[in-house]
Amino acid sequence: MDLGPFERDNSVSCRLASQIPDVCRTEDCCLGIDEAGRGPVLGPMVYGICFCPVSKKQELKDSKVADSKTLTEAERENLFEKLDEAKSYVGWALQILSPNTISTSMLQRTKYNLNALSHDTAIGLVQYALDNGVQLKEVFVDTVGPADKYEDKLSKLFPGIEVTVRPKADSLFPIVSAASICAKVARDRVVKGWNFSEDLGGVDTDYGSGYPNDPKTKAWLLKYLDPVFGYPQFVRFSWSTAQTLMDSKGVTVHWDDDDEDGEKAAQRKNNKSMLSYFSASAGSNDQNPTHQTHRFFTDRRLKSLDTL
Amino acid sequence: MHLFLFWAGYSLSVTDYRRPKVYSLCGSRFYQTKKKRWRDNLDATNRPDSVIDTQKHDSDPAFVRLRNPSTDAASLYMLGSGDVQLFEVKAFDEDFHSWFVGQTVQRDGRLLFVTPMDPLYLILPYLIKSGREGKFQPVDQVVMDEEFPACSRLLSCTRSLTSLHHITEEKEVGKLKFHRYSQEKTMDWLKKKVERTVIVLKKRNISVGERVKSTTYIRVKSESDYHEEDYLRYAHGLISEYISEDLSKALLKHLQLPELTSPKETEPPTKKRKLSDNPVEAGEDYTKFNSADFVRKPPKKMTAAQKSLAKVDKSGMKPMSSFFSPKVKSEKK
């Protein structure tokens, strides 16, 4: 697995893929989808697909691929090696969603939540397989959100393919287990060798599991909090763990789409009481009731000053 | 931004400015353009031998608080290169902005513009005030303000004394000059300002018509569709930012622009109008004598709906027919 393309720019989403085995273009194939790194506040989320001819299912089962969570890191690496050896009939593709992509998607003006991001990534990978001529007949997915809704959505998008969305799919279907191993191995490698684009000077890489409840992760987040910028791009800003820390320890930053309420916000925004519109002097300038700045200046947000 | 300010400074001066000096500031940090040397040299050659020239010639520009002629309150100005030039200070100030300056963060995203300004605007209120006495006075005795002592420095601006004749009558006794405020001269001077502003408004394609709030909004009207009056009124509004309200009204008359009555000033009547129970009748109605049936018919009783309609307050409402009459064209100048 060559992580080079992602490591060159780890701020964006990146796709890595194996060669498409020739048999997959001619024989009916099954495909498994799984993800790794959904929960952590640190590092990327990796989506993986694995596909092989339906006829090779048993061989895959015999290679003892299992749910990546039940395996040690060494075992996972081992199994990934095996999958790589079987490249004559097993193909895989990965989508690495950088923490920066996750942050900016979830925090943008029109919010794009993690479930939608997950679904779209999964759909993108299935489409990738189809575009490359893989004869897909069955797709197995570990669920994200309500299973039946997701299944419906995928079935409609890919007519003619039998879609099975099932919780714990990674322990039920070997092809999903294989996908989960690919995803997990990629995530582990990316996190271990994360290239910090920020100049942090001898960064402490002992950040634990990256999950919000890990004390090591928490300590690391506290250590690398910048009052102005918050965190390096390695951190998912949209996670409440990161947000709470930034709110309490960092400088307050206001955005124009902040959902603020209360009197303070109203005052800051210069909102008027509803009642003021009914009084006689409605619409006048508070500072000087007789003087109204010309629209040339107000349109351009230009003001006179009395002090610097 | 620079573009607009370029013309703002440009249009408000009587004699043409070749190039205004635009200083941009971030907070208290102050950057000057490279043009400074060039401008200063130029100014030095143009400088009259001023009597009040006590300021150092090459001293740094200084911010001063002076009386804003329009609001009568303090506003920030800048006197440059030894008080020979006056600049007004405007801040671009919008919510949710901040600056990264080098390795620091500046919390407000303000951008200060320091643009050339005609000192006569600031001198004018003092002359008007003393003009009420009707006497010719030396101008340095007039331009005095306890609240803003820096105002006397305005007189050392290159163009102050040389352009006073635009707004005053002058008398010379020996080497001393005496001035008296002249409303007519001032009106003519301001009218010129408005006309010059109109020229720049057209040149810069400033939208002077109906308010367009969005910058992405594409105007269907082309600039040529704007009436001269729109430009005049807009320019008048701009100049009014630099003069008192009284003067602004007088200028409007001088420009022969009718005053606009904004609809929000018309308040609804405090009391409901009392309706008489008698039907409305013409005071003198001769038609009834001409008609064949001389006997007047008794007034018809109104239905409940008609009664309630009659009670509606129609004050300030246009009659239905007015919407169908041809539009009265605004007088073109």
Give an overview of the whole structure:
The complex is a heterodimer of chains A (308) and B (333). With 308 residues, chain A is of the alpha/beta class. Helices cover 39% and strands 14% of the residues of chain A. Chain A has 13 helices and 7 strands. Residues 280-287 of chain A have low confidence and may be disordered. Chain B has 2 domains: 2-181, N-terminal domain of TfIIb, CATH 2.20.25; 184-259, no CATH class. Chain B contains 10 helices and 10 strands. Chain B has helices at 2-11, 35-46, 120-131, 139-142, 158-163, 183-203, 228-239, 245-254, 287-290, 304-310; strands at 23-26, 29-31, 62-67, 74-80, 85-92, 99-101, 104-106, 111-116, 168-173, 176-181. In chain B, the strands form 3 sheets. Chain B has a 6-stranded antiparallel beta sheet with strand order 2-1-8-5-4-3, with helices on one face. Chain B has a two-stranded antiparallel ribbon with strand order 6-7. In chain B, a hairpin with a 6-residue loop joins strand 3 and strand 4. In chain B, helix 1 packs antiparallel against helix 6 (183-203), helix 6 (183-203) packs across helix 7 (228-239) and helix 6 (183-203) packs across helix 8 (245-254). The radius of gyration of chain B is 29 Å and the shape is elongated. The chains are: A alpha/beta (308), B alpha+beta (333). Strand 7 of chain A pairs antiparallel with strand 5 (85-92) of chain B.
